[in-house]
């Protein structure tokens, strides 16, 4: 199936060609929803842009295109508006049919614009021997939502957890382990003990340069595959992964690959040699560097990236160049997406500039998200304290708070296991949605009360809207999976149907723009449209005519399907009862 926008855009294309504009000097932009529904449902700016480019009257071009538009069942009327826009009003019966078809389709009538394309998405990517902090939570949640959306669009997606598991910190840890380890503490909370050892090393090394020498030697041992260094490193990786996996299990995150920085170690000398041989990198006072200039991109004037330090060590950049090469060789992806906080913006600009010089063909995208701030006194009270909050604690706390609310309704939901499942979905959903409903670029403030609020643009509000659909369907004895005829009579019904039919377009836009919040906003609008419909159009009351009731139940069932789809793409668990 095509989306509404696609269908209309194709009609405009055909009409423009018929009106003599086959070789247009401007690209065809897709039709978009009108801002004011009084002017129609969708708008095309093609004639306007054509007229401008051809230096003729855009309104005349628009009239000619309109006259050439082939008839289509979806289109009730078309008007030329303003300086040369084409405004489409869609046919009620055709919309009802389209929605009935979408609702009966497991993919909700969505096309597969990503079919035949491969996309690698690099997200979460925490650092071994450190706690996964709230920044990694953002990467995990945003990455997981994008991962799901791209798969839904038909991309062949490879999700890769690019762990920080290599380099001198591990040499330092080995030295610290030998000198200061506390086996008992390691048994209780291994990552806490590793953190303590690392900090102790930093403190002691400040006064004792010999320690740093030893750390370098241990790092070299590790890189040479020396068995003792290797087995300690494996232990550090294992205990850290066990902690990360708790979070992933809880959040339902699954990676196709977990290729940390260590996976690329053997490639690094070759990468540096190649960069030198191609003249992309140069030797500079014993180091190897890449110099950038304005032509490499805004902000890169006079920038320098080190790819081999004076002591011979490779860098984060070298590893990422090797990683690109590996990914290109193995999957020939069309797109590679990286999800990290905005502090790495420069790094990725430089990396992409090096990739461009190497002739890498993939579309490289950095999703640079803002920082997560903690509303005072709320999360900071957690056991680990100090701003770095353990994710498992955050998730537990969210579920605990949700549980307290659900338990107040124990008389309505007597089954204890069901209340626990509801609290899990609501608590985790609230944490996710609080993040995903914001533009990734903005900083986000972590605020429990706002997150778990029943009204406004929150997870709870959306989950309720979905559960309300199910409760109506249960009362009526209707299974939402069964195809039903629809009719759109009341304006609120029409608005709701249009919102539902736009869902596939929104998923595509949100994924390509790397902005899950566009999908969140749409779902919020959808829930509001449903609520307006619910107030205006009785469904289950006795005096509703059977045919009207049937058609409205069809709309409720379609809403349940659309909401569930959208919520799942964001990683939420839609509940049938709450
Ligand atoms: N481990 C890094 C960090 O915690 C993120 C890695 C992102 N991915 C990449 N290919 N550089 O900051």
Written overview of the protein:
With about 575 residues, this protein is α/β, with parallel strands linked by helices. The protein contains 20 helices and 13 strands. The chain has helices spanning about 5-20, 45-55, 60-70, 90-105, 135-150, 170-180, 185-190, 190-205, 210-225, 225-250, 270-275, 315-330, 345-355, 390-405, 415-435, 450, 460-475, 490-510, 515-535, 545-570; strands spanning about 30-35, 40-45, 75-80, 85-90, 120, 155-160, 280-285, 285-290, 305-310, 335-340, 365-370, 370-375, 445. A four-stranded antiparallel beta sheet has the order 1-2-4-3. The longest helix is centred in the middle third of the chain and has 25 residues, at about 225-250. It is flat, with a radius of gyration of 28 Å. Arginine binds near residues 126, 127, 164, 320 and 340. Arginine (ARG) binds near residues 122, 323 and 340.
